[in-house]
Each structure stands twice: as structure tokens, then as C-alpha cells.
Amino acid sequence: MSKRPNELTIEEAASLLRTRELTVRELWDACAAAAEARNPELNAYLEIFDADDSAIASAQERINAGDAPLLCGIPLAIKDNILIEGHIASAASKMLENYRATYDATVIRKLKEAGALFVGRTNMDEFAMGSSTEHSAYGPTRNPYDTARVPGGSSGGSAAAVAAHLCIAALGTDTGGSIRQPAALTGLVGLKPTYGAVSRSGAIAMGSSLDQIGPLAKTTDDARILYDAIRGIDPLDSTTIPDDLYPVRVATEKLAIGVPRHLLETGVDADVRAAFDATLAELESAGHALVDIELPTSLHALAAYYVLMPAEVSANLARLDGIRYGHAARGKTLLDDYLLSRTEGFGEETRRRILLGTFVLSSGYIDAYYRKADAARGVLRREYEEAFESCDVVAFPTTTSPAFLFGEKSDPISMYLEDIFTVTANLTGMPAVSVPMDTVEREGKILPVGIHFTAPHQAEQSLFVVASAVEKAR
Ligand code: GLN
């Protein structure tokens, strides 16, 4: 075996487990040892779990019996805002430092049923708000490609854990890009499924109309395996959808790729732009068609997102008041209790968004801000639906630049701009993927960059086809 077990993909590990060249215990030990060795430097995990001997043994038995699902015995990392019964789920916040989950998220229940193992819970921006993992209450995660740089966010811990081979694959959540952007900055495949494809039951809510759980993986095939394992309608989440809710165009081997060139003229680093153009040219020579499209409202997507998302954040986090559960501080009056608990429990970025969200929902401003942004959401969706009349997927670079340095985007607006190409898929509910397209150099370090594709609702299959095509072209 040339690769160490923790360096394998899901597919490779599953195959070696079945040919008896690898045992579940060996695979677990390799991941756990790598996690213990590398985590002090990377801070990818907030907690590395002890080996679950009975889960390891029963996974091995199922594999021996010959009818185990592909994920059986595969060690995964789980973002700290997804509940695993009996484990702390803090959303990287001081507010939930001691909150222990009393039930499994639906995705965790499904993974347990498939026989998957959990290496630990991964670091993130507090309550998933951020693009760098610098907003964690427990210190930032470092990018394995250059530890002076961020791994992206908010699922930066999951991304670093997979990229550094401290697990085989991971789950993240994506409200405005939090799976796809860290995937791009750490050389991984990251999928944000169609809204409603994956149950949110047991995911700590950020923006409920935008949030989706999805995979961060080393390959497109691995992302598909994880996605297939976690998807499906769930009575515990009324926003989950049946498989055939949308009439989906059958994905063919050759796709029409829509490129909104007018949106890429400014703001994208020259070498990232060059990598994007080269990747598209390779796809074209592999037989895919490039189609020019226009998405004029996309220019306003980021503004709409940063009105709608904080509005939902302010509502979702209202329950963390120091009385019901979470960090509790006591003052002289009940109002003091609320103020103290929330001021101590929440970090600066979280408080900024609660204030923003409360403002845009307040009676004098709801028409001017919230309702306008909500209307923009409908326009964006129609614009994409029209674009999909002439193409199967829409392509963008995932980010305008590779991983940035710690502190480089301390101004909130510059951090928000990191999400410019990713938020639209959350606003429209459409599925989107980031796949590695190339590397660029910064200060002597080689850094990965990703290409991003959006597909119509429930057309994940088209994303897998185009993402695999990018992998083959590289
Ligand atoms: N970076 C975006 C934000 O800060 C997206 C976060 C996410 O997808 N959870 O809101």
C-alpha cells in the first residue's frame, strides 16, 4: 500500500477493507493518530473522540459479512454545529461551551446506520458566521497548505481535517458558502445540496431558509457517497423534499456550461482568473459546451444575503438568553441577566449580526431592507431558472483569491466579499459544488483554488458529472 490508511479516499478505503488488506481498527488508528499528532498545530478539531470499540467491532463484522454500505468503518469528522448524542456541540461558541446533545442529528443517525465512525468535532466560525474560522471562540484553524493562512470558513475545521488526512471525509454546513469556500481553499470537493435535500434536524440553525448540511471530501465520488448517505425526506424537518419535487433535466455526459463573463471582469486575482479560463478551455476540449450567460441581479446577491441572513440569525439566536440554556450570567435584574449572558456568551461577529438582523426586521425598516432583500431573492431565482434554459450548470471561480493570511480581512466588509460567488446558491436554494481547479503561488507557498458550479434544483447529478470532468482534466 503506497498511501497511509488515513490518506485514502472513501472509495479506496472501502475497497481495501473488503479485500482484507486493511482492517477497520487499522484505519481508525491511522486517522486518530494523525489527528492527535497534527491537531495541536492546526486546531482542526475542538475535540478528538475516544475510539468507540463496539462501533469499530460491529463495522468490521458487517464488512466481514459482506453486505456493508460503503461508509461502514470509515472515520469521518463532524462540524461542531451538528449534534451527536452524548457529545458536546458548541457551534464554536462560548455560549454553548457545555451544551451536550441529547439526540442525534438526522444525518448522524443515517451515518451511524451506515456504520461510519466519528473522529471528532471540528472547529468553525462561531454559529457558522464567517469565512476564515477566525471567529471561533476556541482559536482559529490553520490551513495545512500554509499555516500562516486561513483554511476558509465557516467549516474550516472540517476542511483542514480532511485536507491534512486527519479523517477520510467530513460534514460541514453551508449557509452562504461555508462548505464550498473552505473546500476551495484546502483543495477539496465541497457540495451544498439543494435546499431541503438533506435534513437540518439536529443542525444548530444559523439562517434556516439558507442552511444545508453537506460533504467535504477528497474526490467528487467521495462527496457523492456521503451525499447519498445523508439525503432524503425526514419527518423531523418539514422543509425536506421528496426526490422528484422538481422536474429535473436528465444529466448527460456532455454538459452546457454557462459562464457569466461580465461578472468576472473585476475583483478576481489574475492567476485565479487564468486558472478558471484554462479549466473551462479544458472542459470545452473534452466535449462540453461553453455558453455565455448574463446574471445581472447577481451583483446584488451579496447585499441581499447580508440582510436576510442576519435577520434569520437574530431570530434563531434569540433563544440563547441565559435563562433557557447556554451560558448564564447573573446581574441585578432580569434584563441584566439577558444582557450579561449574551454579551459574555457571544463573540463580536455574532453580536454584530444579531444587531444588524434586529435592525432590518424592526418596524421602521422591515419594508426598506428585509422585504426588498426577500424580493431580490425571487428575482435571482427567476434569473437562474432562465439561464438554465440554455445551460446545465453555471460556472464561477469559487473565490476571488486563494487562502488569505490571518488578520488580512479584519474589516467585516472585506470578509463578507469572500462570499460573493457562493451566496446566490443559498438564496435560490439551488445545489452547488466547489472542485479543485489548480494551484497558485503566494509568498513561495502553493495554494489550491476551486471552480464553482451551480445546477437547477435537484440536479446534483449534473454537478457530479461536471466536477468529475474537472478532476479528469487536471
Ligand atoms: N461566510 C458566510 C457568512 O459569514 C457564509 C457562512 C456559512 O455558510 N455558514 O455568512
Write a structural description.
By secondary structure, the chain is of the alpha/beta class. It has a domain at 5-230: Amidase signature (AS) enzymes, CATH 3.90.1300.10. 38% of the residues lie in helices and 14% in strands. The chain is built from 15 helices and 11 strands. It has helices at residues 10-18, 24-42, 53-65, 106-114, 156-163, 180-185, 220-230, 270-285, 301-316, 334-345, 348-361, 366-387, 412-416, 423-428, 460-473; strands at 45-48, 75-79, 117-122, 169-174, 189-192, 212-217, 256-259, 289-292, 393-397, 432-442, 445-454. The protein has an 11-stranded mixed sheet, sandwiched between helices. The mean pLDDT is 97. The structure holds glutamine (GLN). The site of glutamine has 14 residues, from strand 4.
